[in-house]
Amino acid sequence: MLDFRIATFLTLCETRSYTQTAKMLNITQPSVTQHIKHLQKKYHCILFHYESKTLRLTQEGEYLRAHAEEMTRMSAKIVSDLQRMGQEEELLRLGCPGELGETAITRIVAKMMKSGFGKISLVIRDTPELLAMLSNSDLDLTLTDACYQDSRFQAESMGEVPFAVYAGTELAAKYDHCKLEELFVNPLLLQNPGTSARGILENCLTGWDVFPESFADKITAGSDNCLRELASSGMGILFAYRSSMKDAVDQEKLAEIAVSDFSEKRSLVFQYKRNNQERERFPAFFEKFRELWDESI
């Protein structure tokens, strides 16, 4: 739908090399030059200039780049929407953060589709990536912890979900209705810095005037599965959504520790773009999702 020369322009913005742009687009270097000249003539401005032999965007070029990227995203969305509109059954694209429990979320989505709600495409990612996908219209809506609520999007409350303390069964058996500070002698198991799971944990602990440094040690891992395995091996304690620990508890690999002075419920929200064409389906989706969540967790 867009002028094909816009693709050349955006590629040159990334490579800052006429030669590399030609290779990436499988066209000749003179063709790249002609495409840029055409755009400059069309918009009556210079888009690139050289500074110390380095190709740089002009102010006008930066402006065009920002809007060209948005136009490209919108063009892709229009194509995607038209293709989906032509399908017999509409597809809802749902994003969920992995720390909520991939298995638990997948089961709920499967039940929704079996109940006749329609096709749902589930994407499990870290929250910042999900919000970026939502912004780019690659998702229809995403479920996040309320601490990641973004003012760019419309939000709908999913409800409150328990956030508790877990350890391997042997370690957990040593603590019966203990105080939170009694657990400080153990290592704290947590996700790598910069992840949403780590951010949610730190947000939670701060609310109780506790910090990762309050514990004897910190052991980090790059996935929820690794953290669960470390916890089940008695390597430390783990704070997590109850939904993500249910299977491990049922299998007696982990146990929830009852902490007398700690009780946390995290608020979850669905987020979506205000102009999403699927938004008329959202109220029914929210109601069914909450119902299945309460039944499953």
What does this structure look like?
- A hairpin with a 2-residue loop joins strand 1 (48-51) and strand 2.
- The protein has helices spanning 4-15, 18-25, 29-43, 59-85, 102-114, 127-135, 169-172, 196-207, 224-232, 242-250, 282-296; strands at 48-51, 54-57, 91-97, 119-125, 141-145, 154-168, 187-191, 217-221, 237-241, 254-257, 264-272.
- Helix 2 (18-25) crosses helix 3.
- The protein is built from eleven helices and eleven strands.
- The protein has three domains: 4-85, Orthogonal Bundle (Arc Repressor Mutant, subunit A); 91-160 and 267-296, Periplasmic binding protein-like II (D-Maltodextrin-Binding Protein, domain 2, 3-Layer(aba) Sandwich), CATH 3.40.190.10; 162-265, Periplasmic binding protein-like II (D-Maltodextrin-Binding Protein, domain 2).
- The protein is elongated.
- 45% of the residues lie in helices and 24% in strands.
- Strands 3, 4, 5, 6, 7, 8, 9, 10 and 11 form a nine-stranded mixed beta sheet that branches.
- The longest helix is centred in the first third of the chain and has 27 residues, at 59-85.
- With 297 residues, the protein is of the alpha/beta class.
- The mean pLDDT is 90.
